[in-house]
Amino acid sequence: MMTSVDTDLMRVLADPLRLQIVTLLAKETLCSTHLIEETGARQTNLSNHLKVLREAGVVETEPCGRFTYYRLKPDVIASLAGQFADLAEIARVTAENNVKRSCP
Question: 74-83: long-range contacts at Cβ-Cβ below 8 A with a sequence spacing of 24 or more?
Answer without folding.
Answer: 74/26, 76/9, 77/22, 77/26, 79/6, 80/5, 80/6, 80/9, 80/10, 80/13, 82/2, 83/2, 83/4, 83/5, 83/6
